[in-house]
């Protein structure tokens, strides 16, 4: 059984995980999931693909960052060292006309270049002709690339150019004498590495760490996949979605409302239940509706009233602390019970007719076997005359189903030894308002059957029926010579389950009373005396918009 933890009015349930895949596959046809689309392989391949797709762009971004850092560092060093070279006395003296210093200047700058770790140190005159260069063949040549006007104005510049030694970062700093005259320029340069080389260096340095992170991510993906599959009861997402759609289709097409409750909260509610409870848009879970009783599982249905409508509730255990509650519209249940009662009545009438017809056939067969043909003919004529009289008696009712019901009741009365008569004043109009004919059939079937049972076994048992219209509407009157209604039941006779015939009865009059109230009719009973006998009389008065004769 699961355990429930309450948090701020909601319920967080911790249910035990099953040890194997449940029997859902035996209840619902689940879709097949290819191996590569299952949770484990899908998560593994997704993680691997993400690392492969993101690896190269990340390495490229890191390489570009490293390259930009190298460029900034070389630019700062170039400017700083170029300013230092421009202030060296041998350099100023060589450009001021000292021939000895000028002759030794290239060798001095090469030694200085080695100490600085620069790729070249170039000193030029005002015409930008080199006085020093790592390659002696370039001495005397004009310096290439960049701005050669700023240093003449006493300004220093740092630039990235393609020189004779390759792409480099260099600064051009003016060399001035004591009088402030520009004698030439000093430039210290650093060759830039190729971005591809930086990228390869980054890859070589980061590849072990990248592979280690990839292995950890893949191991974590497999662990998460196993955990997720365990939480999903060993099923794939498509299978869970397919099963959910099937169960939802079943729940939504049921005529009854269905609730699944656990720990005082409603977690499942189909549209029929929402319509009955008046919660069409409420989000689940919901607290159990206040005022609505929660039936004890397996203890039988209980009745309640929801929004002025009577409903029937029943509950069953569903395991893991869940209870499935079904809600049925009590009016619909009663209508179904009414239809079932009518069907049972018709079945009884058919059985009575069959029994009566079988007895007559046996009698005729015996008479013919004895050679009493005249007596057999007399019996046939008498039976025919009786049926003809019954047909004439019900002809004025003008409604086939009601007439058929009364014909069956004549045979039922004969079987019970009761004389059933239809008052000659019985007559009905050709059309009746909706529902009135159904009420007449229900009431006549139940009241006549009850009268036959009450009168059966009494001396000269008799039941009289009147179905007619009067100035106030329509009247159905059933009288019997039975002992009458016990005084203790007089006030509760139309309550469901109340009957003088023992337990398991007391449905028919309750159905008649409910249907009569719905149409504004009234059902009553009393005790009257007529023709020197005491009768029990049940009367149904049905108002009509316009009473017809």
TrEMBL record:
Residue ranges of domain Histidine kinase in the record: 440-546
EC number of this enzyme: 2.7.13.3
UniProt GO MF annotations: kinase activity
Protein name: histidine kinase
Top-level taxonomy: Bacteria, Thermotogati, Deinococcota, Deinococci, Deinococcales
Catalytic activity entry: ATP + protein L-histidine = ADP + protein N-phospho-L-histidine
InterPro entries, alphabetized: HATPase_C_sf (IPR036890), HATPase_dom (IPR003594), His_kinase_dom (IPR005467), sCache_3 (IPR033463), Sensor-like_sf (IPR029151), Sig_transdc_His_kin-like_C (IPR004358), Sig_transdc_His_kin_SpoOB (IPR016120), TCS_sensor_his_kinase (IPR050428)
Coiled-coil region list: none
Transmembrane segments: 43-62, 207-225
Gene3D superfamilies: 1.10.287.130, Histidine kinase-like ATPase, C-terminal domain, PAS domain
Keywords: ATP-binding, Cell membrane, Kinase, Membrane, Nucleotide-binding, Phosphoprotein, Transferase, Transmembrane, Transmembrane helix, Two-component regulatory system
Membrane topology listed for this record: Multi-pass membrane protein
Localization, UniProt: Cell membrane
Organism for this UniProt entry: Deinococcus radiotolerans
Keyword check for Protease: no
């Amino acid at each position: 059984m699961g355990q429930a933890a309450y948090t701020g009015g909601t319920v967080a349930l911790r249910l035990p995980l099953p040890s194997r895949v449940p029997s859902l596959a035996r209840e619902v046809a689940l879709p097949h999931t290819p191996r590569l689309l299952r949770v484990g392989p899908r998560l593994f391949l997704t993680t691997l693909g993400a690392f492969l797709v993101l690896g190269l762009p990340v390495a490229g971004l890191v390489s570009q960052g490293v390259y930009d850092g190298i460029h900034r560092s070389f630019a700062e060093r170039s400017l700083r060292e170029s300013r230092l070279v421009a202030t060296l006395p041998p350099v100023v003296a060589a450009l001021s006309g000292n021939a000895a210093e000028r002759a030794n200047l290239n060798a001095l700058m090469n030694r200085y270049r080695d100490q600085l770790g620069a790729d070249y140190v170039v000193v030029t005159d005002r015409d930008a002709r080199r006085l020093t260069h790592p390659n002696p063949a370039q001495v005397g040549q004009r310096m290439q690339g960049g701005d050669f006007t700023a240093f003449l104005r006493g300004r220093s510049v740092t630039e990235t150019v393609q020189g004779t030694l390759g792409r480099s970062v260099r600064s051009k700093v003016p060399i001035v004498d004591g009088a402030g005259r520009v004698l030439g320029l000093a430039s210290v340069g650093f060759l830039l590495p190729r971005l591809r080389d930086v990228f390869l260096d980054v890859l070589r340095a980061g590849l072990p760490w990248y592979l280690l992170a990839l292995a950890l991510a893949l191991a974590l993906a497999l662990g998460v996949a196993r955990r997720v599959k365990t939480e999903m009861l060993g099923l794939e997402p498509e299978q869970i979605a397919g099963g959910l759609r099937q169960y939802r289709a079943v729940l939504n097409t049921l005529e009854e409302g269905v609730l699944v409750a656990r720990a005082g909260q409603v977690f499942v509610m189909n549209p029929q239940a929402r319509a009955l409870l008046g919660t069409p848009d409420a989000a689940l879970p919901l607290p159990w509706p206040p005022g609505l009783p929660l039936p004890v599982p397996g203890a039988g249905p209980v009745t309640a009233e929801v929004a002025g409508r009577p409903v029937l509730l029943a509950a069953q255990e569903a395991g893991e602390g869940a209870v499935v509650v079904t809600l049925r519209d009590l009016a619909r249940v009663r209508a179904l019970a009414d239809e079932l009662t009518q069907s049972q009545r018709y079945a009884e009438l058919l059985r009575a007719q069959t029994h009566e017809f079988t007895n007559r056939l046996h009698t005729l067969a015996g008479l013919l076997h004895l050679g009493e043909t005249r007596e057999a003919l007399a019996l046939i004529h008498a039976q025919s005359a009786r049926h003809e009289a019954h047909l004439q008696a019900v002809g004025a009712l003008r409604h086939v189903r009601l007439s058929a019901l009364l014909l069956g009741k004549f045979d039922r009365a004969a079987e019970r030894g009761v004389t059933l008569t239809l008052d000659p004043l019985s007559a009905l109009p050709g059309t009746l308002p909706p529902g009135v004919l159904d009420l007449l059939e229900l009431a006549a079937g139940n009241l006549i059957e009850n009268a036959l049972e009450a009168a059966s076994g009494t001396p000269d048992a008799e039941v009289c029926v009147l179905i007619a219209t009067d100035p106030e509407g329509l009247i159905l009157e059933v009288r019997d010579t039975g002992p009458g209604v016990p005084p203790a039941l007089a006030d509760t006779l139309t309550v469901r389950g109340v009957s003088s015939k023992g337990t398991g009865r007391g449905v028919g009059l309750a159905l008649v009373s409910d249907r009569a109230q719905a149409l504004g009719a009234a059902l009553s009973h009393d005790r009257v005396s007529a023709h020197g006998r005491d009768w029990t009389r049940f009367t149904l008065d049905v108002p009509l918009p316009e009473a017809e004769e």
